[in-house]
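Dear Dr. L.,

I hope this message finds you well. Following up on our conversation about the binding site, I have prepared a predicted three-dimensional model of the protein together with N-carbamoyl-L-aspartate. For your records, I am including the exact sequence and ligand specification that went into the calculation, followed by the structure tokens. Please feel free to forward this to your student if that is useful.
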Amino acid sequence: MVYPERHLLAIEGLHPPAIAQLLDLADSYVLLNRSGKTQRDLLRGKTLINLFYEDSTRTRTSFELAGKRLGADVINMSVSTSSVNKGETLLDTAATLNAMHCDLLVVRHDQSGAPNLLAQKVDAAVINAGDGTHEHPTQALLDALTIRRRRGRLEGLTIAICGDVLHSRVARSNIHLLTTMGSRVRVIAPPTLIPAQAEELGVKVFHDMRSGLAGADIVMMLRLQKERMAQSLVPSAREYFRFFGLDAEKLAYAKPDALVMHPGPMNRGVEIDSEVADDPERSLIREQVEMGVAVRMAVLDTLSRPAAEWAPNVR
Ligand code: NCD
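The resulting structure of the complex is given below.
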């Protein structure tokens, strides 16, 4: 075991062997899932709590399915974010969960850093299922698994991440993972949707699809995250689609066999056209969902192993 941590809070800081180990294990779970066999004894007697302070369809369901396939008792808690004093509420919740002796805690929160705070307060292994605009590590792992299975590698591939990079924890986790594994990462968006100092993350920044997509192996589209925008950062959805929405015409700028990804939920006609999203030859969107279950099984499996199996100092 080279995975160095008790928790999975971020991709940033993980070394290639730890990432590769999670992907290799996830690969074996893909085969197991496809064969219809499950390993219901691995997490038998363990409790997994899904603590979601933000909406989610695929991530929550996928963690639930992953936990159940491994035999854990799974409890879903959806919590409203309307409380005034969020810090205190979160710590109260941590104390409650700790008293329940849960083993694995999957957290989604609108505040960046909330899972890190919980990890300091609970005995359970904490998995970040998306925190604010910070990270969404299991999404990056499932995206990497999808790419690696299709292309046989991550190293040397040119991957274009397009759209609302500024608000996207998916983009941030993917940038960390893909650059760590040797991919060439580009981000494409209007200047209002690119974080300051994006280049420091090791990516090339483009403001138009034609030059940004030229020679890309993978085109990863992102949702316009209106709920995280304090003011309107794009003129209109229609205008946005004209310049940055992926349709067949813009996809033609990329490599002829370039593949299309999207973490979901999609805004069809805003960042992506149905013609591309639903094209079985080019779109990996459904496969990403399948890989999501396998990756989460690999993460739950890894984090539930006894501490003696971890190798410290790999970071
Ligand atoms: C993403 C998220 O919640 O960060 N969705 C997901 O987990 N598949 C992306 C998004 O909300 O646009």
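In brief: The chain has a mean pLDDT of 93.

With kind regards,
A. P.
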